[in-house]
Amino acid sequence: MRLSRYFLPTLKETPAEAQIASHRLMLRAGMIRQGAAGIYSWLPLGLKVLKKIEQIVREEQDRAGAQEVLMPTIQSSDLWVESGRYDDYGKEMLRIEDRHGRQMLYGPTNEELITDIFRKEIKSYRDLPKNLYHIQWKFRDEIRPRFGVMRGREFLMKDAYSFDLTEEDGRKSYNSMFVAYLRTFARLGLKAIPMRADTGPIGGDLSHEFIVIADTGESEVFFDKAFDALDPMIDAGAGDDLQPIVDEWTSIYAATDEIHKPDNCPVDASKLVTGRGIEVGHIFFFGEKYSAPMGASVQGPDGETTNVQMGSYGVGVSRLVGAIIEACHDADGIVWPESVAPFKVGLMNLRAKDDECTAACDKMYAELTKAGVDVLYDDRDQSAGAKFANMDLIGLPWQLAIGPRGLKNGVVELKNRGSGERVELSPEDAVTKLTG
Ligand code: ATP
Ligand code: MG
After folding, report:
1. Residue owning the nearest CA to atom 2 of ligand 1
2. Dihedral pair phi/psi, residue 33, rounded to 5°
3. For domain 345-435, which architecture applies?
4. pTM of the model
């Protein structure tokens, strides 16, 4: 993509409304613009990152055996009356009346709708287990939308729902999502720690929040350093017993301030790391909470009808864009992990008025593009300093600068945004390095 044609409205000044780094950088890097409080438009650079995160989330859901569906954003209130949540949900739910006077709502989550789909189609234990997920916009009329996409009102969520015959099978579904989440966040370049979460009136130990450690996180967290020694890229196949892996991860102490009681903590609280964290995912097994009131049951092997055991599993896809930036930035701008970077390489023509230099840049751009490398090519007639600053701000993993001085010696300059390391090498070697 040539920058001269790309819609990338970057800002030099720090926007006054942004309190935290990720919000500031997303506005400055031209990734998002606010439409109304907590409601954003995604501009090309931001949307590219959002899509990459979405794809990694999708791949890990698929790998874990979940199947993608797409439910609507607008739901009928009837199902929520049935589950008993229509009144409970309160003001966070955006309620809408259609032209016929029917009560509708913009879905804040999808337990009711998926349970309705399930109960109409699945009647036998032979069709279990099932895990269905979608990646869809949600609306919650948050009392205090803030921090940009971190706590929006409209936000993109991946939500999966598992259906099993027995509690034991439900635990297996839970475990497979637990492992999928560890892998997902690791692939996104994040260190996310599963922390025991409140299960409310349902009880049990099957609820975990996945938390990324960052100073700007909304909750205070307490955890054991032992997590550092564990590898989240668990390579288990379908059908493997995941219980030992989940046991290993959940035996290490980690809790948010909602759960942690310093005086009543199973480990020596003074040895724990204290910090702040951002919740990027939440998994929850809740048994018959929805299947019982909504009548989602199947016929078991003994011919008896039983309510299915359910769990739900959320990932804050749009929140992750902010969380990744919180974890990956420096004073000059964003430092994207390669897996979610909007482009791999930022190619800079340091002297756009120089025909020879421009020809060398065009050639480089063509070669990299042909080799399948996603390049953002700054072909504009601007000062080298402005170009470098802009590339640092948008945080592409590799910066390739081509100027007349280097070309005279047959070299171009390649900088790694993360390490800051710069090397001079021949254009051919640069291509090899970036395509290898
Ligand atoms: P929180 O405690 O942050 O309000 P929640 O418990 O209400 O979150 P869930 O219902 O578990 O959230 O939703 C699943 C995921 O969706 C969360 O882990 C979070 O990453 C994301 N999420 C929830 N609310 C928002 C929001 N207002 N803006 C952006 N992402 C959100
Ligand atoms: Mg939660």
Report:
1. 279
2. -140, 145
3. 3-Layer(aba) Sandwich (3.40)
4. 0.97
